[in-house]
């Protein structure tokens, strides 16, 4: 996926400034696709010159005017074309998994602190996801149905929750294995 597509999706959800987009990437989109502020601004400039986004100046009181971006027709067409391209399943590249395998050739228990640190990071992210789910999807609408945008946002969030739970379970298994190896010495 190109950063352009993540930006288009975010702008279709809600138009915004480059700064606002960067904040969205920090809060939600960034868990699935990361980008620095500089990358976002550079890509927005290119998308504007390619006619994918439209820009309007928004006056602000007591602060400089800001540029608000929204998706133009060519941007919608580009996103539609990308959405209809086949996507290959992703391969997992996981440094820690290689270290766990390689630990058989060194002191396996030396990895315990790294595994615990990873486990804490995944636990923190799971807590963040669950809080977001409660905040954003805790009270179902009166008819019990979300619109397509919200339903798909929730599906992605549920995927993130399942992934974090799976990683925590795997890390618990690795820690148990390392503990068994430590007691077997």
TrEMBL record:
<dbReference type="Pfam" id="PF10400">
    <property type="entry name" value="Vir_act_alpha_C"/>
</dbReference>
<feature type="domain" description="Transcription regulator PadR C-terminal">
    <location>
        <begin position="92"/>
        <end position="178"/>
    </location>
</feature>
<dbReference type="Pfam" id="PF03551">
    <property type="entry name" value="PadR"/>
</dbReference>
<feature type="domain" description="Transcription regulator PadR N-terminal">
    <location>
        <begin position="7"/>
        <end position="80"/>
    </location>
</feature>
<dbReference type="InterPro" id="IPR005149">
    <property type="entry name" value="Tscrpt_reg_PadR_N"/>
</dbReference>
<dbReference type="InterPro" id="IPR036388">
    <property type="entry name" value="WH-like_DNA-bd_sf"/>
</dbReference>
<protein>
    <submittedName>
        <fullName>PadR family transcriptional regulator</fullName>
    </submittedName>
</protein>
<dbReference type="InterPro" id="IPR036390">
    <property type="entry name" value="WH_DNA-bd_sf"/>
</dbReference>
<dbReference type="InterPro" id="IPR018309">
    <property type="entry name" value="Tscrpt_reg_PadR_C"/>
</dbReference>
């Amino acid at each position: 996926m190109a950063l352009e597509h993540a930006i288009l999706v975010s702008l279709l959800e809600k138009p915004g400034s480059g700064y606002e987009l960067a904040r969205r990437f920090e809060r939600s989109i960034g868990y699935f696709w990361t980008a620095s502020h500089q990358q976002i601004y550079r890509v927005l400039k290119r998308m504007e010159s390619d006619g994918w986004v439209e820009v309007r100046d928004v006056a602000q009181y007591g602060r400089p005017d800001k540029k608000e971006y929204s998706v133009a027709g060519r941007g919608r067409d580009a996103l539609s074309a990308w959405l209809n391209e086949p996507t290959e399943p992703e391969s997992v590249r996981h440094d820690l998994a290689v270290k766990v395998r390689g630990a058989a050739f060194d002191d396996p228990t030396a990895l315990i602190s790294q595994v615990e640190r990873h486990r804490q990071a995944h636990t923190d992210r799971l807590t963040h996801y669950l809080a977001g789910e409660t905040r954003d999807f805790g009270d179902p609408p009166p008819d019990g149905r979300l619109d397509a945008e919200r339903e798909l946002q929730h599906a992605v969030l549920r995927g993130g929750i399942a992934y974090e739970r799976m990683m925590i379970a795997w890390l618990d298994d690795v820690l148990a294995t390392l503990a068994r190896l430590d007691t077997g010495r």
